[in-house]
Specification:
single chain; 502 residues; alpha/beta; Aldehyde Dehydrogenase, Chain A, domain 1; Aldehyde Dehydrogenase, Chain A, domain 2; 7-stranded mixed β-sheet; 6-stranded mixed β-sheet; 22 strands
């Protein structure tokens, strides 16, 4: 399929997605669709060919302030403040139903906006989003405190109350723009918080479509607000706003540090889901076919633009050649093209900047002595495509092994029988600790190694491990806090201790 002409790609959209993409986009504040105060806009670029296909408001600090005030009013007074947990849960469930009902449209918008394959968006991002909304709806009625027996024996009836933290600023990335928004929105709403959401400037559209569904579901005005804009303006204003009680951010570790510094204005609560450099360890007894499939998904899914991407592959010498033969064959067979093409398996990276970043890392690895097994450069005559790339003979001192690339680049490090103990040390030799995986048929070894790996999520004979009920987050510079599961509810609540003199 040609990716030269945006009109050819837009023809692949269904009627609902076409109508949404072509409409005038506005901010969603206090239940109303409004323009940015200064009237500026941002271009929305199709990563398959680099062409502008939509524009959204460029919100700034004044727009953030309007949204925060609306969220504060909704939190302190009115229908949401007085709503029962059961009613909140029903609204969340209804929103999940609406996301499921509009799944094809949302997937198409995401594929156009982000570049990812539409089938991945439909059966990955969107499916997970409505599952998570339904899951979190159930927590609305199960947020409880507990009675406490005082060690002093004092004549008190003591108990705790778990209550919503308040107004939450949520800043989400461009790699899973809808799903990351729902990761944060669902537990916050279940807990009774109100929200100002700032989507990534590169991929703002599904957040705006989500706002329409929130409105359709019947949430009170001001509970959920969306301000599109640049990170340096709208994002920074949200992070430092003194009337925001909590900031939740997913993105790079570098920006996470800036978010943390800005949040210090009022010492608001902060949760951060940041970068990763996830190791995958393949032992000599691994099931080769299953390992190859899982490793390929671990690095090439979403074009490697995944914080948990398995970018470091530690391969036992006895199986290295066979595993690499399978991986090279898999990589070369992947069909590249625009995300809206149903046959596409590898779409473009999100931006020209990201494409250049990934290509620079590949060049760096080759300059430092890596061996190129496949890929290695850009693809096509337009858009931001990078070939699935495998670099052999890398080592832990290389930039490509230590730094987050965020692209479809696999770095291979071989180890011998005598180095089996050391390989776990090498896998932990990173500033990150988000995910890891182990491939072996020795169940005892699997559990021993899993206990030693410094990572928040560990797969055994698989890599991407994710479920609405499973806590997700990282060690070290991969972030603070855990999302999903009950732990996500804890992020959006505060505890009050109450003592009643008897």
């Amino acid at each position: 399929m040609s990716v030269e002409n945006t009109n050819d790609l837009l023809a692949l959209l269904g009627p609902a997605a076409t109508a949404f993409v072509n409409k005038e986009h506005k901010l969603f504040i206090d239940g109303e669709w409004v323009s940015a105060v200064k009237g500026e806009t941002l271009d929305v670029i199709n990563p398959a060919n680099g062409e502008v296909f939509a524009r959204v408001p460029a919100g700034e600090s004044i727009d953030i302030d309007r949204a925060v005030k609306a969220a504060r009013r909704a939190f302190e007074q009115g229908a949401w403040a007085e709503m029962s947990p059961s009613a909140r849960g029903k609204l969340l469930w209804r929103l999940g139903d609406l996301v499921e009902k509009n799944a094809d449209e949302l997937a198409q918008i995401e594929a156009l906006d982000n570049g990812k394959p539409v089938n991945d968006a439909r059966w990955g991002d969107v499916a997970f989003s409505h599952e998570l909304l339904h899951y979190m709806a159930g927590w609305s009625t199960k947020i409880n405190g507990e009675t406490i027996s005082l060690v002093s024996g004092a004549p008190f009836h003591a108990y705790t109350l778990r209550t919503p933290v308040g107004v939450c600023g949520q800043i989400v990335p461009w790699n899973f723009s809808l799903m990351m928004a729902v990761w944060k929105v669902a537990p916050a709403l279940a807990a009774g918080c109100t929200i100002v959401l700032k989507p990534a400037e590169q991929t703002p559209l599904t957040a705006l479509r989500l706002a329409e569904l929130v409105e359709e579901a019947g949430f009170p005005a001001g509970v959920f607000n969306v301000v599109t804009g640049n990170g340096e303006t709208a994002g920074a204003a949200l992070a430092e706003h003194t009337d925001v009680d909590k900031i939740a951010f997913t993105g790079s570790t570098e920006v996470g540090r800036k978010i943390l510094a800005a949040a210090g204005t009022n010492l608001k609560k902060v949760s951060l889901e940041l970068g990763g450099k996830s190791p995958m360890i393949v032992y000599a007894d691994a099931d080769i076919d299953k390992a190859v499939s899982a490793i390929a998904s671990g690095i090439f899914y979403n074009m490697g633009q995944t914080c948990t991407a398995g970018t470091r592959l530690y391969l036992h010498n006895d199986v290295a050649d066979k595993v690499l033969e399978g991986l090279v064959s898999h990589a070369r067979a992947l069909k590249m093209g625009p995300g809206l093409d149903q046959e596409t398996q590898i779409g473009p990276l999100v931006s020209a900047e990201q494409k250049q970043r990934v290509c620079d890392y590949i060049a760096s690895g080759l300059a430092e002595g890596a061996t190129l097994l496949t890929g290695g450069g850009s693809w096509g005559t337009s858009g931001y495509f990078v070939e699935p790339t495998i670099l052999d003979n890398t080592h832990n001192d290389m930039r490509v092994v230590q730094e987050e690339i965020f692209g479809p680049v696999l770095c291979v490090i071989r180890f011998s029988e005598a180095e089996e103990e050391n390989v776990v040390i090498q896998a932990n030799n990173s500033i990150y600790g988000l995910a890891a995986s182990i491939f072996t048929q020795d169940i005892s070894r699997a559990h021993r190694v899993a206990k030693r790996l410094k990572a928040g999520t560990i797969g055994i004979n698989t890599h991407h491990v994710i479920d609405p009920a499973l806590p997700f987050g990282g060690f070290k510079q991969s972030g603070w806090g855990r999302e999903m599961g009950w732990e996500a509810i804890e992020l959006y609540t505060e505890l009050r201790s109450v003592g009643v003199a008897l």
